[in-house]
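SAMPLE LOG
Freezer: B-3
Tube label: C17
Construct: single chain, 371 aa
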Amino acid sequence: MNTTSYFFTKHLAQKQYRLPSSQESYIYRLDKNEQYDDTPDFIKHKVLQHVMEMEWNRYPDLDYSDVEENIATNIGVTKHQVLLGPGSASFITTLLNFFGMQRRQIVITQPSYSLFDYHCKTYDIAYTPWMLNAQLEYDYKLLPKLETGSVLFVVSPNNPVGNTIPRAMLERILRDNPHTLVILDAVYAEFCDDDFGDMLQQYDNLIIMRSFSKEMPVAGLRLGYICGSESVINTVRKLTLPFALNPLSLCFARHMLFDAEYMALAAMHIEQIISERNRVCGILEERIQTRLGKVYRSAGNFFLVRIYDDVLFTKVMDCIKQAGIKVLDTSTMPFLKNTFRVSIGSRETNNIVVRCISSALQPALQYALAG
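STRUCTURE (predicted):
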């Protein structure tokens, strides 16, 4: 091993982090919060027709202003307040690197999207956690003191918990800390009642990150955007790499993203996912009850389950795996011992998840009721 390889191997090993492995085969993948149905073929063909007309020997377009203007019109802001990019993860890492180099005070909701902690620890970016309370809810009293020029990352709906920050609390933070930049990761906003988009016109210190990967079955295309004040968006635009979007993603964004038929189809799928989420959570609440665990009501396209007993938790996870289902084990995250996150799949797949959890817990539940 040469010196360079040794340095990187040793550095990353010290972090004790690793990227998720895709070597194991599962029949049902409910671990990444993707939509369970693929994009219909007739839509793919429409996009590919435009891709075939492009010159592949040329670099992709640098100007996305036409797409950004469509997004702006859809959410009620100006085109100068929107920046298109390759998914929210790209914006998160870019912003963390920028503010980390500036030695800004960075505060991040915890527990939340694992990329925040992973990236900060890998790149030695210091941050202060804003911990959820014992009930896994946002608590203003636990918010660290925000310095002038600080940056606060809030995830709502929270991933993996599924809860949302109350509007009044977010407004209080923005109002009381005008010199703090609040970055709201709202990639699951389509599945909840409030996306906070109207607050952009009132607060210049608010940025909202959104993604098309959850709203539509196009996670593989890597499309997302951020919106905020014109001055902030101009700054972030300078930080992004040129040619960040590939031609396929751009063709989809230009020709299908705001197609009336496709938008209606996407809205219908979102309604179905919300309905399935509520149905499955309701059933599991009855099956698990409060003696054995808890199902956290979610505002996303997923839900979180906690099993109180260590042995029972292992039994549930083994049962789910044996059924060929991949869920996300969140047990190592702060406050989330013996928990796992389940993406909403098809009705058939969701029923299999319910049966697995129910059968694994049934003996213990009968014993508890008998006692």
